[in-house]
Amino acid sequence: xxxxxxxxxxxxxxxxxxxxxxxxxxxxxxxxxxxxxxxxxxxxxxxxxxxxxxxxxxxxxxxxxxxxxxxxxxxxxxxxxxxxxxxxxxxxxxxxxxxxxxxxxxxxxxxxxxxxxxxxxxxxxxxxxxxxxxxxxxxxxxxxxxxxxxxxxxxxxxxxxxxxxxxxxxxxxxxxxxxxxxxxxxxxxxxxxxxxxxxxxxxxxxxxxxxxxxxxxxxxxxxxxxxxxxxxxxxxxxxxxxxxxxxxxxxxxxxxxxxxxxxxxxxxxxxxxxxxxxxxxxxxxxxxxxxxxxxxxxxxxxxxxxxxxxxxxxxxxxxxxxxxxxxxxxxxxxxxxxxxxxxxxxxxxxxxxxxxxxxxxxxxxxxxxxxxxxxxxxxxxxxxxxxxxxxxxxxxxxxxxxxxxxxxxxxxxxxxxxxxxx
Length: 422
Known about the structure:
Shape: elongated
Strand content: 35-45%
Strand order of the largest sheet: 6-7-8-9
Number of strands: 38
Distance between the termini: 21 Å
Helix content: under 10%
Largest sheet: 4 strands, antiparallel
Radius of gyration: 28 Å
C-alpha cells in the first residue's frame, strides 16, 4: 500500500473531512481537506481545535441507554438491572434509583408524554412520574355493570347499551367494559349496578356510557366523581362525549417510543403502533397500526409531522391516521441515531449517506454525502456538543462495516504526521 506524500496543511484554509478523495487530491483551489480528524472540532470557518477533555461524574458497571429529557434537562440511564434518574447538583450530578428490575443489557427507548416519562425495553412499556415509577395507563374497570329497566322514568322504548370507563384529571381514559344491553319500555328508567366500589390510583372519574334507544353509539351520560356501586338514569341527554376506547387494548411495546400529536407511538419491527388520542396506553388492535416493507430504524417527530425510515426515508404529514407516507430520501437510517436539535425545530440522524438534517414539512438535507462516506452500521447514537459558540452534532456508530465507496488505496485510518494526529 502506498503511504502517499507529506501534506502541509494551512489551518486557515481547512475545509473539513473528506474520505472520498485519494490523499493526493485532498488539496483544492479553495483549501485543504483532511482524511481524518480525531478528537478535533472543525468549524464552518475552517478553524480547528482539540476537543475539551472529560471528567467522570458517575460510575457504573454496564451503563447504557442514556437519554436527556429536553423539557426538564433530567437524564435517565440503565446500569445492569437498575434505571437511574440524573439531575444537576452543583458542579456535579445526582442520581436517583427509579427501578431495579430491568433486564440487564436490554436497550431502552424513552418518550415524554405530558408530565411523565415513558420507557420501553421492547417487551414492556413503563412510566415514571415526578415521584418515581407509577403504573402506565389507567386500568379498565374490573366489573361489568348490570342494568335493569324499571318503571318511573322518561326513557323512550328501545334497547339500550351501557358501558363504563375510568378517567384521570387530565382526561386520560381507561379501556371500557363490554357493553351490557337491556330492553326498556316507554316511561322506564335504567338502574345501573355492580359498579366498582374501589378505584385505581389516578382515577378521578367514572364515566357512564349509554346509547340512545336502538343505537350502537356509546355516549357519556354520567360522570361519577366518587365510588358508588349503583346509579340511576331517569332520562338521557344524548349529547355527551362519544366513546373512543371501546374494544381498546394495551399499546404493544416497541424498540422506539415517541409521543406526538396526543398519541404515543411504539415501533416494533416493521410495524408502527399508535395509541388512541389522549390515551397513550391504549390502541385498537384492528386499526391502530401501519406496516412497512422493512424494519423501521427511524421514527422521529418534527414540528408538523414525522420522519420514518425503513426501506427508504418517509415523511408522515400531520396525524398518522390521515397521513400518506411520502418518500423524501432514497436512504435508510441507522437505528438509534436520531436526535432533536436544541433551540430549533429540527432533527438529525445518521443514514447510509451520512448525517441528515430534517425540518418542518418533510424538508431534508444530506450534510456529509458530498465529502464523507459513512460505513454501514447496525446502531448508533447522536448528541449535540455546544462549546465556544459553536454547535456540533456528534454521532457514534456501532457494528460498522468497511464501505467500498471510501477512498482506501492510500490511507485507511487517521492522518498521522510527525506524531501529530489531526
